[in-house]
Amino acid sequence: MGRAIIVNLDFDTPGRPGRSTQAFSTGVFDVITEGARAHFKPGEQACARHCFFRLDEQFQEHISLDELHPAWFNIFVRACETGLAEYRSTGITGWGTQHDPDMVRGIAWEWSEFIKKLHADPRYIAGEPGET
After folding, report:
1. Which of 13, 58, 59, 94 is the most buried (most CB within 10 A)?
2. Rounded-to-integer distance, Cα 91 and Cα 102, Å
């Protein structure tokens, strides 16, 4: 079974798809979400709870970023970017499992493609870490 990250549900923006979603295998999804989760700062916990609410509290097979305020969206993007950089350099998942280099390359590629989708979202501001 796969899992997904819903980025945007904006049906009214001209020139944008009705739904921007990234589907992942469960293993890749877990590496990305737990890698990002590990990089929320202490003052950003309300944002983290909101980002992972459906996964953690409602036991859904997805997380949804569609309702995030731009500041929180940028916090999530920064956490993803930091998590990816750490995973690439160490090969260690957010829960401490060491992956072999081939697996790291494959997951890091999918993760970087997801970050490109985040960067294409109109809420993304380059260099903006967001504010809590």
Report:
1. 94
2. 10
CB–CB of 86/77 below 8 Å? no
Bridge partners for 3 per DSSP: 24
Q: Which residue has the tokens 């469960």?
A: 26
Give the tens place of pLDDT for each residue, 20-50.
677 788 889 899 999 999 999 999 999 999 9
User: Helix/strand/coil (H, E, C) string of the chain?
Assistant: CEEEEEEECCCCCCCCCCCEEEEEEHHHHHHHHHHHHCCCCHHHHHHHHHHHHHHHCCCCCEEECCCCCHHHHHHHHHHHHHHHHHHHHHCECCCCCECCHHHHHHHHHHHHHHHHHHHHCCCCCCCCCCCC
Q: How many beta carbons lie within 10 A of that of residue 75, not counting itself?
A: 26
CB of 79 within 8 A of CB of 39?
yes
Q: What are the tens digits of pLDDT across the range 71-123?
A: 999 999 999 999 999 999 999 998 899 999 999 999 999 999 999 989 988 88
